[in-house]
Amino acid sequence: MTYTEKERQLPVYADVDVLVLGAGPAGWAAAVSAARQGADTLIIEATSDIGGVATSGLMSHWTGNTFGGIYEEMVDRTVNKYGANPKLDDNEMRKYIDHETMKTRAIEMLEEAGAKILLYTSACDVIMDGDKLKGVIIENKSGRQAVFCKTAIDCTGDGDIAARAGAEYFKGREEDGAMQPMTLMMQVGGVDIDRMEYVYSFEDTYNVPEGDIQQLAGKYIPHPAGHVLVYPSVFPNTVTLNMTNVTGVDGTNADDITKAYIKCRKQIPQIIAFLKEHVPGFENCYVTKTAAQIGVRETRHFKGVKTITHDDILAARVFDDWAVPNVQFNFDVHNITGAGLDKTGSQRTFKQKKAYTIPYGCLVPEKTDGLLLAGRNISGTHMAHSNFRAMPICANIGQAAGVAAAMCAKENIQPRELDVTALQTELKKLGVYPR
Ligand SMILES: Cc1cc2nc3c(=O)[nH]c(=O)nc-3n(C[C@H](O)[C@H](O)[C@H](O)COP(=O)(O)OP(=O)(O)OC[C@H]3O[C@@H](n4cnc5c(N)ncnc54)[C@H](O)[C@@H]3O)c2cc1C
Fold it and tell me: How far is the CA of 52 from the centre of ligand 1 (A)?
């Protein structure tokens, strides 16, 4: 059944140079970077918080590396102040996220740069002139409004606006569209850190009195959960668990996200019971916090002017038209049908230690003008995405997109017309270049 909405006049909320949609690691970085270039910049976020999965998603830590770039600024500004971790040195602890501090620092950085912020607002439709995006329809407590811009950057993770603008995409794996599972992250207190062990990857395990902890998790925690990932937290006697797991769901479908969230909540008591009964150090543990947003790992992959692939990463390619240099991570593909690592994934066993670069064309939709992509929704294959989806990489993609969008607005050109050498000159001034 369908319903035809009545035509109506919308107030124009703003007309800006650069409009950033979504304030995760990519969106925050894009807006700070565009505003620092002098562009009149507005960032719109559906929730109350800047940070996306890093904050609302209660993420444990920044993984992967870009050896510099804007994410390092955030790490420096949110340095841990809750005391030393008995098992990690201060340098290792740098990448563990203090969510509340990060939310505040992110706002400070946006304000210092001069970016305007609009929270509790969803970007829900597009204003097009043929294949050129001219603006976006937003919806919030004030109702429906229009925002016009010279260049928009889609940092919604799912690419909601790029999809509505007609940019071509596919979802998940190339062969069948299956997407990585979703997880509701949680923080657990009352843990005796001296008597437990962290479990950083699916390939890590250790023996508890009854046997191998990963095998026991598979036995006692009902499918599709059933693996152990336990990370440090900046808070004393506290850990972050990446252990709820829902497969076969699509993050661009509201029913699926709802179903996944409810399923994760039901898994939480089962996971806590397993830890209390079988794992030394967790006897008195309790949940202190769950994420405000369920973590969606993978949805749309857009078709860009260029596409980054599995082979580019394995070959550690340095492209002449790089926009994001020094990118290093593994193939973090979670099992598409159950717990643990997918057969195509490799975490600790990933061999390529050299960094690769992401070409600028991966940020430019193949046919849509007035729009850049940043974050996990750029143009890449399913396997490449499992690597560049890590937050430091998404933040530095955002940085490149922000600088590029500001340059496009200044020169009154389309992202596809931007001289990549000129973009690289600006990025080099920010300390971003292949090392
Ligand atoms: C469970 C899980 C565990 C992970 N573990 C790690 C890890 O340990 N380390 C690591 O580095 N990375 C990890 N990742 C990957 C990483 O967190 C994400 O890939 C990364 O955050 C993507 O950044 P982004 O800015 O593209 O999108 P997001 O972080 O998803 O941010 C998107 C933002 O856009 C907003 N938004 C969405 N739609 C709209 C709309 N229509 N209008 C307005 N706003 C909108 C959202 O509210 C959100 O704030 C993990 C991901 C998940 C899901």
Answer: 5
